Amino acid sequence: MSGHHREVLRTNLWLVPALLVVAAVGLFVITLLTDQAAFHGDLTLPTWVISGSADAARQILTTIAAAIVTVVGVVFSIVIVALTLVSTQFGPRMLRTFIRDRGTQLTLGTFVATFVYAVLALVSIGGPTPYGTFVPHLSITVTLALTVVDLAVLIYFIHHIATQIQLPEVIAGISADLSAAIEDYVGAGAARPGDPHVAAVLASLPEEGGVVLASGSGYLQYIHRRTLLRIAERADAVIFLRYRPGHFLVQGSPLATVWPASAAPGVTRALTRAHLTGPFRTLAQDVSFGIDQLVEIAIRALSSSINDTFTGLTCIDWLSDSLCKVAGRWQPAQVHRDQAGAIRVITPEPTYDRLVQRSFEKIRQCSRGNPAVLIRLLDGLARIMERTTTEDQRRVLLDQASMIIQASDESVPDAPDRADVRRQYEALLAVRAHLADEPLTAT
């Protein structure tokens, strides 16, 4: 199953409840067959199984079903209130994080499944027969047991939702999803040591390629690279995608270029199967989206209307953690070859430079005059610097540090605060000098 399909299946409120309802129906079939066997004398139920008249059974099941429906309404109300709070405080893009929460999905599914089981048990109660009135004693006992489970789930849900709406938990959850996306991206395939630069490959192509236009508007959510590779191999062509997941496509704009140009019409028809677009971004192949979510929370917290410095510091800590995982490992393949080694697909991928810039620039711009945030930015850059493996990566971090110290000199009014920021900057330079074995120089 592709990362996109996993994301789609996880980011909904119906899949887990539907699976639990199917499980409840299967459990009812088993208990009903057992009750029927006991009714005809083929087996004897244990003494702890509740027995009683058909009217008492109907009353028990009706009461339980009505109570479960009431609780389901309360749970849905709590979920809606939580989603509204998240959208207002954390931003509308955080809603998907809460919708994909397994605790909420399991809670809804447990109550709905219990309701379905109770209704099925209720309608199975039969009328008078030569053998007597059929009462599903085992099914009623199981319904009561499920009700006890529902009470435990309700207590868990109240605790869970109270924990989930806390900002540190929200930030840590987004960071965990981002880390998983980074691992998937890194494990999907790295550039080969001998791969040429994309510009060199494009310059070596002999003729003007044919253009494939985007069939619809929306965010590019997922690219089936293996399908794309098979399409190019079948057409004996080279496909250059102009966009990567996370970019917005406009209908009729150039989506890809194909060499030779004669292969473009066939590729156009097949390319619709190799990519997906939608109204929103996802983390399936868009690591930048996870970074943007953390940055959005940080700049909201640092805005003058909220002025929550500690939330901004927390976001910087988790961003630094994510970039530490990227440093030294981020080498996504931009040139994709077929089994014979021929170049077939060229894709744009986010560079290490761009990930660092995306993580720090907007926060730096919103933290002018705030020495605590500026110091934490420099501290995060120093931690990332320790994980770097090339001078190019260190140069990107030093560029960000230079802009931070410049912002400090221009916007921090008190000299002692500026001195604190500069000490952290010099600590970062010391890390860089240690790694590069160069003399320490401060600007």
Structure description:
The chain has about 450 residues and is α+β, with helices and mostly antiparallel strands. The chain folds into three domains: about 160 residues, no CATH class; about 80 residues, Pyrimidine nucleoside phosphorylase-like, C-terminal domain (Aldehyde Oxidoreductase, domain 3, Alpha-Beta Complex), CATH 3.90.1170.30; about 130 residues, Serine Threonine Protein Phosphatase 5, Tetratricopeptide repeat (Alpha Horseshoe), CATH 1.25.40. Helix content is about 65%, strand content about 5%. It contains 16 helices and eight strands. The strands form two sheets. Strands 1-5-3-8-7 form a five-stranded mixed β-sheet, covered by helices on one side. Strands 4-2-6 form a three-stranded antiparallel β-sheet, with no helix packed on it. Helix 7 runs antiparallel to helix 11, helix 9 packs antiparallel against helix 10 and helix 12 runs antiparallel to helix 13. The radius of gyration is 29 Å and the shape is flat. The two termini are about 50 Å apart. The C terminus is likely disordered.
